[in-house]
Amino acid sequence: MTYRILYSGSLVAGRTSLYRYRALERLNQDMVPFDLMKYPSRLQILNTLRNRLPIGPLISRLNADMLALVRREEPDVVWLDKPIYFTSATIRRVKESRALTVCYCLDNPFGPRNDGCWYQFYRTYRLFDLHCLIRNVDISRYREWGLNYVKTQLSYDPIEHFPPPSIWCDSDRDREVSYVGSPYEDRPNFLRTLIEKYKLPITISGPRWRNFFNRREYELYVRGGMLIDSEYREAIWKSKINLSFLTHLNEEDVSHKAFEIAACGGFLLALRCAGHQACFEEGKEAEFFSSIEECADKIRYYLAHPAERERIAQSGYERAIRSGYDNDTQLAKVLERIPVLPSRKVTSATPSF
């Protein structure tokens, strides 16, 4: 079924919300964009303050523009990707238009990580018609609250994440072991120990690493800042081994990067957990570690066994395709859930905006 979907999110290059928007387009949905990135302040400090306390003229304009777009476009569905700026009054008026509201949060508003950006969300989340849950821990929460949900999972974008050309080989890989990502939790110390204690050739890319390494360490260990789209994909291609962790404070079951690495045909060496083990067969489709010693041992082994490494990477790619770890497959589950949502009493047949 085709729906007219008004999609609110950060619709710029490198953002997963843009990947999901495009996936819904590929699923033949009639898409109307509402790009949150069109509402920045010229001062970064004001953007930071806006995330923590989303009130004031800019937030008022954003909410008014949303309601005007709903009135003009008359969507069947308003899809809200990490809705941290919309007020409860706005959500109620959207619902009065008879549009169904779908909430998708990649980050976790109820976990132990203190993001400080959920002020408005805590006032609106019970109003949404459907929540897309990507963490198992959330299921009992939303069930207890009596909220409608559909279980989906973190997924890769098939347009951005795909293997290198068939002629690609180890001689094209100039990164022995890579971590591409942010310095969350214990990752800086973990990677520093692999480099300094275990003498392993680790290359790091990503934002904010200057805050965790001194100048000498940064120059030796880090190659490039935040990588997006083709740069991110090529960093995976150029890496013999790709490391992946979990963000425990975000209550992750699996790593988003695990699926992206596999989809890019990369060799995945990830933190051992039930989620990763359910998605990839250990030793055949990916490799896992539970300690830094095991991680170091497996790095040494697989750097010395390229043929085995290639077989596992290829099998991991095939598993990602076969099991539907892509955005299109996962978002199709959400679309299938929409027709069976319970009907809603509308307080006004003709909404006033």
Q: What's the pLDDT, averaged over the residues? A: 92
Q: Work out the strand percent.
A: 5-15%
Number of strands: 11
Strand order of the largest sheet: 2-1-3-4-5-6
Q: Label the structural class.
A: alpha/beta
Distance separating the two termini: 28 Å
Q: What does it look like?
A:
The chain has 353 residues and is of the alpha/beta class. It has two domains: 4-155 and 328-340, Glycogen Phosphorylase B (Rossmann fold), CATH 3.40.50.2000; 170-324, Rossmann fold (3-Layer(aba) Sandwich). 40% of the residues lie in helices and 15% in strands. It has helices at residues 16-26, 44-52, 57-73, 88-96, 121-124, 136-145, 187-196, 215-221, 229-237, 256-263, 274-279, 292-303, 306-322, 327-337; strands at 4-9, 30-35, 77-81, 100-104, 130-133, 149-151, 175-180, 202-205, 239-244, 268-271, 287-289. Strands 2-1-3-4-5-6 form a six-stranded parallel β-sheet, with helices on both faces. Strands 8-7-9-10-11 form a five-stranded parallel β-sheet, sandwiched between helices. α1 (16-26) packs across α14 and α10 (256-263) crosses α13 (306-322). Mean pLDDT is 92; it is low at 343-353.
